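Continuing from the previous page of notes. For each protein in this section, the sequence appears first, followed by its structure tokens. Read the first protein now.
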Amino acid sequence: MNTVLKRPVPPVQPDLEDCCRSGCVPCVFDLYEDALARYEKELAAYEAALAEQAVNAVSGPAPRH
């Protein structure tokens, strides 16, 4: 059985005007960087799962012990 994978959606980068430049912690750009790091991690997991599905489609699933 193949699981339907959903490709992660990248975060929207804030515009320069979105920052109020008053030293907020966290800044909108800090939040974006955190979201981007999560996205990159999710994308890597998605791509690995997609590759595993492709291998399983050709050779069948690995035997379970």
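Done with the first. The second protein uses the same format. Note its length before scrolling.
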Amino acid sequence: MSKKPKNIEEPFSPEQLERLETKGDKDVQLQRQKEGIFQRNRAKRDAKDLASQVRWKRRAGIALVTILLVLFLIWIMTWLLTTIGDLVISVDSGAAKKGISVSQDADGTQFGENGGPFKMSANMVNEVTNITYDWLPATLDLEADGSHNGRNYLAYSFYLHNNGKETVNYVSTLKSVKAAKDADEACRIMVYKNGEPEVFAKENRGLTSSDGKPEPFEKIFKKAIPANYKQPTAEEIEAAAKQPQNKEAVETTDEEIVIQPFVDPTIVFSTTSDGLEPGKTDKYTIVMWIEGEDPECLDVIREGYVKLMWFFNIEDEEL
């Protein structure tokens, strides 16, 4: 039998070792290249992911800011329409320095919710319909201090005080600052000053007249105060405002109240009161309603509203 040759380990020659080392170096380099390509690709993906996250966060931030801005604007509109109310009364800084202030009571201590001695606001009247002057109570100037709204009208009484040391002449300016759906075209504003009423209305535009000229205002007369009148309680006033509208004419006197037109489209009136002495007070009551007898009391003004601001400043000083 032949014998298998023995495996004899022959030493590597220098040339063989060099070739093996060169091959090993190439394998290592190739492996490193593969790892480098993988790392670069992974770095690119990481960069893309990071950029995508940055873009998403930026878009989310912009969306959040936009939502917050919209909510803020809605809050501002809601605040204007509900918190301020239909009427704001304001004493300017010059008048305040002279000692002029306002309050809901004759003692000068009550200012209403969120009010103060230099700014107050009346409560809103919601879901009103048109009425007429003849249906209004004769005692609106006597009922209560502050807000005493009726079913379809705003009524607010307040006091202007001179707490200073000198006699002053002050200017009283009532402005229509917002009117939706032209509601101010048919509204009436009655102002009592120390018990004497005046009524103001926007001049008609002649929409229903045959010649296109403004229609004349209706004739109205001062109302007679009942001999047995008793001031109602706050609860009675609130309950009466929830009752159906009174549609019976209230007794009047023979003294006519001449309705005065607005000074211009936005200024209801601007009058000067002379000689308010230190420690003295003027009482005001304002009543606002939509007059059903006005030719421009049309369906198009439904759900409209009127916002008023009443400014007080010292004569010859800017508002």
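What the second structure shows: The radius of gyration is 41 Å. DSSP finds three helices and 14 strands in the chain. We return to this in next week's lecture.
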